[in-house]
Amino acid sequence: MFAAKRVLGVKARLASLVLVSVIPMATVAGLLLADYYQRGREQLIGSTMTRAQAMAAGLDREFDHSVAALQALATSRQLADGDLAGFHLRASEALTNLHADSLVLVGLDGRLLMSTRRPYGTPLPKLPRTPLLKHILATGQPGVSALFPGPLAGTLIYTVGVPVRRNGEISMTLNATAAPAQLEGLMKAQQLPASWRTGLIDSQGKIAVRSHDSARYLGHSVTPALAQHLAQSPDGGFQSTTLDGIAVYTVYSTAPRSKWVVAMGIPLDELTGGLRQALAWLVAGTLAALALGLALAWRMGSTVAGSVQALVAPARAVGQGELPAIPPLPLREANDLRQALLDAATQLRQAQAAARESANRLALAAEAAELGIWVRNLAEHEVWASPRWRTLFGFQPGDQVTLEAVLQRVHPADRDATRAVLAAPQQRYHTEFRLQLPSGGERWISSRGSVEPDARGEPLLVRGVSQDVSERKQTELAILQKQQEVTLLSRVAMLGELSGALAHELNQPLAAILSNAQAAQRFLRAPQPALAEVEEILADIVAADRRAGDIIRRLRGLFGKAESQQQPIRASAVATEVEALLRNELVNRGVALKLDLQAPDAEVLADRVQLQQVLLNLVINACDAMAGVAPGNASVTLRCARDEQGMLCFVVSDHGPGIVQEQLERIFEPFFSTKEHGMGLGLSICRNIASAHGGKLWAANNGEGGAAFHFCLPEAA
Amino acid sequence: MTGRWVNLVDDQPDVLKALLRLLAAAGLPARAFGSADEFLASSAPQEAGCVVLDLSMPGIDGLGLQQLLAARASLLPVIFLSGHGDLASGVQAMKAGASDFLTKPVDGDLLLAAVQSALERNAAARASHASQAELQQRLASLTAREREVLPLLADGMLNKQIAAALGTAEQTIKIHRARILQKMQVRSVTALVRLMEQA
What we know:
The structure holds two protein chains of two kinds.
Chain A: H1 10-74, H2 77-81, H3 84-95, E1 102-107, E2 112-115, H4 131-139, E3 143-144, E4 148-149, E5 156-166, E6 169-178, H5 184-188, E7 197-201, E8 207-210, H6 214-217, H7 224-232, E9 235-241, E10 247-254, E11 261-267, H8 268-319, H9 332-368, E12 372-377, E13 382-385, H10 387-393, H11 403-409, H12 412-423, E14 428-436, E15 442-453, E16 459-468, H13 470-497, H14 499-525, H15 531-558, E17 567-570, H16 571-589, E18 592-597, E19 603-606, H17 608-625, E20 635-642, E21 647-653, H18 663-666, H19 682-692, E22 696-701, E23 707-714
Parallel strand pairs in A: 18-20
Antiparallel strand pairs in A: 1-2, 1-6, 3-5, 4-5, 5-6, 7-8, 7-11, 9-10, 10-11, 12-13, 12-16, 14-15, 15-16, 17-19, 20-21, 21-23, 22-23
Helix pairs in contact in A: 1-8, 8-9, 11-12, 13-19, 14-15, 14-16, 16-17, 17-19
Chain B: E1 4-9, H1 13-25, E2 30-33, H2 36-41, E3 48-54, H3 62-71, E4 78-82, H4 87-95, E5 100-103, H5 108-140, H6 144-154, H7 159-166, H8 170-183, H9 189-198
Parallel strand pairs in B: 1-2, 1-3, 3-4, 4-5
C-alpha cells in the first residue's frame, strides 16, 4: 500500500492487457490488407498494359489493312497508263471498302494530283507540309502520317500513304485520308470500364481519339507528363492527372510501326477505393473491440480491486490483534485470502497468549535463578533493567541507569576491559568482571549479551542477563592458587630428589676454588713467588665463582614463586639449562643426554621455570625408565623442532621398556604411578602446565622400543 | 725418587687444573687425565706413583676404574675424591683397598698428606713386590728334593730328624742343607726362616 503511487492498479493493468492484445492484431490485419491491395493493383496495371499493347497492335493492323488496299490500287492499270481520270473513278469505287474518307494522289512536289473529294479536273491545292511524302521518298516504304488539317476536308485528318511506281521509279504517292473518328471502333472493341480515360495519340503526341470529350480534345497535345514518359520509353505506366483533371494511373503503349500511342488512364479512385473502404472497416472493428475489451477490463478490475481493498482494513485489524468480521467477497481467490486472514487472526491471538505465558515463565525463572535482565538501546543510550539487576548492581529503583554509570561501579582493574566489551559488543558475548558496591565490598558478575540488529544490520539493541558469580569465582581462584602451590611443591619435591646431584654440581666450582686458593698460598710462601702463576690462579677462581653463582641462580629460580609469569623464551636455551641442571644426576645414573636442537632461534611464550619443570620431569622419567639398561648404553634424546602444525615440540625419548598401551593416557592422571615410590603427580602437573600454555603433552611408544613424550607449545609470534 | 707421578683423573677441567697447581706448588710431579679411558690408555697404571680419582664420571666411573686397576694387578694406591659424602660408595671403595676417601672441596693439606702416604705405600709395595720376585726366583732354582727338605729345615728340625722323616742318610741331608742355604743366599737357617716368612 505504501508504494501505491508508483504501482499500477489492476484496472490499468487489465486495460493495458486489452490494448496489448488488440492493437498488434489490428496492425497485422492492416498490413496484410495493404499487401493484398498492392498485389491487386499491380495485377490490374499489368493486365491493362497487356490490353494497351494489344490495342496498339490493333492500331498497326488497322493501318496495315489500309496499306494493303492502297498497294493493290497503286498497281492498277489506269495509274500505269497515266489515266488519272480513270483512276479517280476506280478509287471512288474502292473507297467504300476502305476505312477512309478519301483517296488522293500526291505528286513528288507535294501538289495534289487527284482527290476523291473533288470531281476529277477540279484544281487542287499544293500541300504546305509533306512529312509523309518525304518519309516515303526516303525509304520507299509506306507510312502513316500524324494528324494534320486536311486542305480539302478542313478538319484534322490523318493519312496512310504508299508509293506509286512507274518504270521502277516513284512517280507519286497514293494516300488514304481519314478523320480520327474512323478509329473509334477500334477503342470501343476493347470494352473498357466507362470511368477509364482512354486515348489514341498520333506519332507527334497529339490526341486523335479520346473516350471522353473526344471532339473537345482532338488535336490537343497530351499532358506534359505523358509527353515526357513517351520521350523516354515506348511503353510504361505512371500516376498523373488527365487533361480533364482526373487523377489516374496512366498505362501507355506505342505501336511499333506507326509510332501511334494507346494511353489508358485508370482513375485512382477505383484503384485504391476498395483498400480505403476495407481499412475503414478494419479501424471500426478494432475500435469496437477495444471499447468492448476496455469496458470488460474495467468491470473485472473493479471486482478484483474492490475485493482486495475490502481486505485491507481487516488485515490491519488482524495486525493489531483484533478478530475482525469480514463479509464474503465476490472473488474466489479473495475469499481464500479472507479465510487465511481469519485463520491468522486466530493463530496470532493464540501466539500472543503463548508469548505472554512464556514471558511470565521466563520472568519467574529469571527471578528464581537470580538473573538480572537488562536491555540497552544503542541509539538512545538508555538501559532498562529488571529489579533484580538493580539489586545486583546496587541501583535504587528510581536511579537512571546508563552505560557510564554501570562502568563506574566496575572495579578499576576490570573497567577498561569491560568497557571494551560493552561499548562495541560482539554478536554474542560473555564477560566477567568485579563490581565495587556503593556499600563497600566486591561482587563478581558474569554478564552475557546478544546484539539485535536493525533492518540495515546495524546494532540496535543489546539484551542480556547478569548473574552474581562471586562464589564460583572465589572457588576458581582458590583452585588456581592450589594448583600453583601443587605445581611448586611438585617442583620442590623433584629438586629434593636431585639435591645430591645438584650439591655435587655446586661442589665442582667450590673444589676448584679451594684448591686454586691453597695452591696460590703455597706459591706465595715460596722465596721468590711466581706472581704470574698466582694471577692466573685468581682469574680461574673468579671464573669458578661465577659458575657457582650461575648454578645457585638457576636453583633459586626453580624454588621461586608459585605464580606463573609468561614471557618470550628461546626454547633451545631452556633445553640447554635443563641439561646443565641434570649434568651430575645423569653422570651418577650413567645416562647420556643427547640434545637435538632443530630450531635454535624459535621462541615460545611461557613461564621459564614451569617449562624447565616439565622438561626436568620428562628427562628424569626417561632416566628412570632405563634403570635396567647397562650404564654406558643408556641414553636419552631431548629434541626440539617444529612439527607439521607449526607448533614447537620438545620430544624426550628413551629406549627403555616403553609404556603399556592401555596406560599411555592413564599416566597423566593424578596419583597414577608406575614407580615404586612415585606420587603420581609429576606428569599430571606437567600436563596442566602444557594446557596453561595453550600446548599439549602426550606420550607414545617408539617404533624401535622405548617411549617418547611430546610436549608441544605454540610458537611466539 | 724419579718416575714417581701423582695421576689425577677427573672429568672437570677446572678441578683438574686447580689440583695440578696445588700439587705443583707442593713440589709433587702430577699429571691430569680427563677420563678413566684416557688414563687406562696411558702407561701410567704400570708406573710408580698414585692416582687421585673422581668418584662420579661419565663412562667408567671411579669405582669402575679401581676394579680395572685391581684386575690388572696395578700397585698404584687409589685416593678417591667424591662430590658428596656418599657413605655406601666410600665403604665400597675402602673395601676394595682404596688408600683414602676424601670429599670435595678437599683441603690442600689433607690431600697432600693423603698423596704422601699413598706414594710411600706405593714405594713400599713396589719394593716388597721386587723382593718377593727375587725370593721366588731363588726358590725356583731348588731341585725337587731340596724343595722337600726346605720346609722341614725351616721348621727347625735337625739333620738326623729330617733324614729319618724322608728315609735317607743324615749325610745326604747335610749336603742338601748346604745347597739350599747357598741357593737361597742366606748364611744361617735363622735367616732362611725370616726370608720364608716374607714369601
